[in-house]
Amino acid sequence: MSRKFSLSHAITALIIATIYFSPGASARADQKLRMAYISDSPGSSAPYWIAKEAGLYKKHGLDVELIFINGSTRGIQSLVAGDINFAGAVGTSAINGKLAGGDIVIFDSLVNTLPYYIIGKPNIKSPEDLKGRTLATHIPGTSADFAVRLALRKYGIEYKDIQAVMIGGATARVAAVLNGQTDFTMVTEPGKIQGEKAGMKLIIDMAKLRIPFQFTCTVASGKLIQERPKVVEAMAKAVAEAVHFFKTNKKATIQIMTKYTRGANPKVLEGSWVAYKELLEEDTHPTMDGLNDTLAVQASWDPKAANAKAEDFVDLRFVNNLKRSGFIDKLYGHSHMSRY
């Protein structure tokens, strides 16, 4: 064998080694993936947008098509049908999909509490004054519905002690209070800004209460996790790095939020960035307490929830590896302590 031939083979081997052992390579090859985000409101979906726009999916070896599916339930349905590989989800939808027999696993988290505000008529003096009043609410089982139930429990008010009127989305709920149909409702940051501008009063800031709740998480099928764990690991890294980007790159984050919300009001975007800078989980670890609390509430109308526990819905190996390997500490430059 000639020296030239040997050198050629050595170079080829080096190239192959570089391809397969460079950062992210373990998740490469046939990684054409579809990732769904379920809300185009600024805030909890932003890390998925950032991972795309800042090249973090690519950095970790993933070729991701980011698509919008309106609503967590629809996102879960698409995941179960095999139309997508990953989805952002509200914990309640992941729980309901799993209890219905779907192959759904939560493997990381973005928000572990309820970023909701209860706002209402100016004559409501305190949270306790909500008793006996009329609530503009969403569909039972949604995060908005859970938010108000948990908030009322915090102040010793049973759900039966109020009059709930199912209205629908946040804009319609705010309108129902403004036109006198109801007395109060629950909204996220954009709805709070809208309501306060129209003269409504902030009654309960649920985000400050830090009630454990699996508000936003990333889900995949158990089949994908079993067959392609390196892909899921890469996704977990990309999302965790996107959370860090959100917290440390305000200007670029708001530019990305502007794009995906199709030019939302700058004050709303600014307010969302301030709120979610605190709400987004650094270590992206799901809240087990929040999942168990959700199951406890849901058990009152769903017998399957009464026999389930948080561990049935999660695979924590990926977020635990991020922390154990020093990935999170390297991002933030400090030893991290999870809030949940």
CATH architecture of the largest domain: 3-Layer(aba) Sandwich
Nearest-integer average pLDDT: 88
Output the CATH topology of the largest domain. Answer: D-Maltodextrin-Binding Protein, domain 2
| Unreliable segments of 5+ consecutive residues | 1-26
What is the CATH first-level class name of the largest domain?
Answer: Alpha Beta
- So, the CATH homologous superfamily of the largest domain? Periplasmic binding protein-like II
Q: Describe the main β-sheet briefly.
A: 5 strands, mixed
Strand content: 15-25%
Total domains, how many?
2
Number of helices: 17
**SS-based class:** alpha/beta
Largest beta sheet: strand ordering: 2-1-3-10-4
Q: What best-fitting shape do the alpha-carbon axes yield? A: globular
- Order of SSEs, N→C? HEHHEHEHEEEHEHEHEHEHHHHHHHH
Number of strands: 10
Helix amount: 40-55%
> Span between N and C termini?
63 Å
Record the SSE blueprint.
Layout: H1 3-21, E1 32-37, H2 46-53, H3 56-59, E2 63-68, H4 72-81, E3 86-89, H5 91-99, E4 105-113, E5 117-120, E6 134-137, H6 143-154, E7 163-166, H7 170-178, E8 184-187, H8 189-197, E9 201-205, H9 206-209, E10 212-220, H10 222-227, H11 229-248, H12 250-260, H13 266-279, H14 288-298, H15 303-306, H16 317-324, H17 327-332
Parallel strand pairs: 1-2, 1-3, 6-7, 6-8
Antiparallel strand pairs: 3-10, 4-10, 5-8, 5-9
Structure, explained:
The protein has helices spanning about 5-20, 45-55, 55-60, 70-80, 90-100, 145-155, 170-180, 190-195, 205-210, 220-225, 230-250, 250-260, 265-280, 290-300, 305, 315-325, 325-330; strands spanning about 30-35, 65-70, 85-90, 105-115, 115-120, 135, 165, 185, 200-205, 210-220. The chain contains 17 helices and ten strands. The strands form two sheets. A five-stranded mixed sheet has the order 2-1-3-10-4, with helices on both faces. Helices cover about 50% and strands about 15% of the residues. Strand 6 (about 135), helix 6 (about 145-155) and strand 7 (about 165) form a beta-alpha-beta unit. Helix 2 (about 45-55) crosses helix 11, helix 2 packs across helix 12 and helix 12 (about 250-260) packs across helix 13. It has two domains: about 25-115 and about 210-330, Periplasmic binding protein-like II (D-Maltodextrin-Binding Protein, domain 2, 3-Layer(aba) Sandwich); about 115-205, Periplasmic binding protein-like II (D-Maltodextrin-Binding Protein, domain 2, 3-Layer(aba) Sandwich). The protein is an alpha/beta fold.
